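1st attempt posting a full record on here, be nice pls
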Amino acid sequence: MFFRSALTSLLLIFLSSCQDKKTQPIDTTLDSKAIVKEKPAAVHPVRINHKNAVDFLTNYGKEHLENKVLIETDFGNIEIELYEETPLHRANFIHIVKRGFLNTTSFYRVAKGFVIQGGNSDGWEMSRLKRKIGDFQIPAEFNDKLKHNYGAVAMARLWKANPEKKSSPWEFYIVVDPKGAHHLNGEHTIIGRVIKGMDVAEKINLVEVDKSEWPVNDVYMKASIID
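the predicted structure (as tokens):
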């Protein structure tokens, strides 16, 4: 009798123990840790230098096919079409627009009856972003079909110690002389043309300037991609 009673008690304890295990929540701590994946490292834009500039711009140009840029100023808007014939320069201009670089700059040089030149300023934000993007120049992409006609857009460059006539990646100018500026053909790479807003460029060309052709009142710009 005692044996049966003891056996019955043990059976009840066993069943109770099984029931407790079924009703307890499953511990997924170890499983969760097993499937947690490491967060990917933050992706930082490539800093461009003299060695990787061509490769970077070539690849960037293949991925970013836009060729129209809107320049907004207090005098109105200027629309620029970039040429496919100068692919490195097109890619670079699209790149600096998308990085917001031109939004930190102004038309800092106004040569009366000749050109308006932008892509620079005395602001710290411009200098900070320039360092972030990189330090490089763009190989010249001269094309006999592209001339410094009225409305031409071209890149500035260093004249000293630059026999290959490489372009600045930042500073550009627009020809406002109705006769053009053909003495600059073969000296600066032409990257595009103004397709709308030459009246705005001419208004900017009329602003008051100092002896260095720097406008007395800053002519700031904002740039964005149209297409």
